[in-house]
């Protein structure tokens, strides 16, 4: 959800509570445009909160400053609120679930990694969700991420178990709709969520076997330069590995496609823009020696016609998206260790 229209109630997503007062979409769009100036210094200021102005931190702060004022400040309500889970969903024993061949994956990124898929899928195998220190059965939607619709990840969990790679899969999904790599990186407003989630998994006895990232559409729309994206992505990966160790696989998907509002015709393929330089930066981040792997390229995998509003994945696309992760995850050393 990189654009103002997407930040404020896209047609494909449901709100958490019924609106009592109709709001015209033009008003929402204007609000989104006005919000572009709200974060004019937040990212750079947040960087300064970290102790020690090392050269690396100064470099990242300079990247943050370059885009100050471009990042929107959407309301954390409606489809952009974090889903708390279904009321009354039974809590499960996380320690018991993690016994044996269990994959534990922290998932983050933006809306196509959150709960925006056509709803209706429920995992049929031992696939679970972890959020706020609690494990529950994985259903649409997954708690901990934004949105109230469906998710691609329970599909992936079922496929991994059906393929014999694991006996159980646990997803901790913290994806945030519309988020930029600038917000996940050091100094960004979601960085603390990322680091705290890794700590929470460790405290629960669920050290991640994998960290999965699907994010880039917002940065394409914001015009983030590939070197800046690459620097921030590298910093994020370094932070993750400092928390989980060097042997946890970090899998970076390739994605940048967004709908150009200026073009405005969702039936016209020319209105869907991509940033090959960003997907090249995502690809270049892969380094098997560092346990950093390349994930699916959804710019190629999911055409605009298979996005339920021109942007988010249909159920069919989500199923193919899940299939596309299998080669990377089944070949990863983390899977091999669990299979032994």
Automatic annotation (TrEMBL):
Keywords for this protein: Hydrolase
Alphabetized SUPFAM superfamilies for the sequence: SGNH hydrolase
Top-level taxon of origin: Bacteria
Sialate O-acetylesterase domain residues: 173-255
Molecular functions (GO terms): hydrolase activity, acting on ester bonds
Pfam families: SASA (PF03629)
The keyword Hydrolase appears for this protein: yes
Membrane-spanning residues: none
Keyword Heme: no
Protein name according to UniProt: Sialate O-acetylesterase domain-containing protein
Lineage: Bacteria, Pseudomonadati, Thermodesulfobacteriota, Desulfovibrionia, Desulfovibrionales
């Amino acid at each position: 959800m990189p654009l103002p229209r997407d930040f404020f109630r896209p047609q494909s997503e449901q709100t958490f509570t019924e609106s009592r007062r109709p709001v015209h979409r033009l008003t929402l769009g204007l609000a989104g445009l006005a919000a572009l100036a709200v974060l004019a210094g937040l990212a750079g200021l947040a960087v300064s909160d970290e102790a020690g102005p090392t050269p690396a931190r100064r470099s990242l702060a300079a990247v943050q400053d370059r885009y100050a004022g471009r990042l929107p400040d959407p309301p954390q309500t409606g489809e952009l609120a974090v889903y708390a889970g279904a009321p009354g969903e039974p809590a499960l024993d996380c320690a018991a679930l993690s016994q044996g061949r269990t994959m534990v994956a922290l998932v983050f990124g933006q809306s196509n990694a959150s709960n925006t898929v056509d709803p209706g899928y429920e995992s049929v195998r031992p696939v679970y969700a972890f959020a706020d220190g609690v494990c529950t059965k994985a259903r649409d939607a997954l708690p901990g991420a934004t949105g109230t619709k469906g998710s691609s990840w329970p599909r992936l969990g079922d496929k991994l178990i059906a393929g014999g790679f694991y006996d159980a899969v646990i997803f901790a999904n913290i994806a945030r709709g519309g988020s930029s790599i600038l917000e996940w990186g050091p100094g960004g407003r979601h960085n603390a969520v990322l680091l705290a989630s890794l700590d929470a998994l460790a405290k629960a006895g669920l050290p991640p076997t994998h960290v999965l990232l699907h994010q880039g559409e917002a940065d394409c729309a914001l015009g983030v330069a590939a070197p800046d994206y690459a620097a921030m992505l590298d910093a994020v990966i370094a932070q993750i590995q400092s928390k989980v160790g060097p042997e946890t696989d970090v899998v970076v998907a390739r994605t940048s496609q967004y709908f150009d509002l200026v073009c405005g015709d969702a039936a016209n393929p020319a209105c869907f823009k991509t940033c090959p330089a960003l997907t090249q930066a995502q690809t270049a981040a892969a380094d098997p020696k560092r346990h950093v792997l390349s994930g699916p390229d959804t710019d190629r995998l999911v055409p605009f016609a298979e996005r339920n509003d021109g942007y988010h994945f249909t159920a069919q696309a989500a199923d193919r998206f899940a299939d596309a992760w299998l080669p990377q995850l089944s070949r990863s050393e983390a899977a091999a260790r669990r299979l032994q």
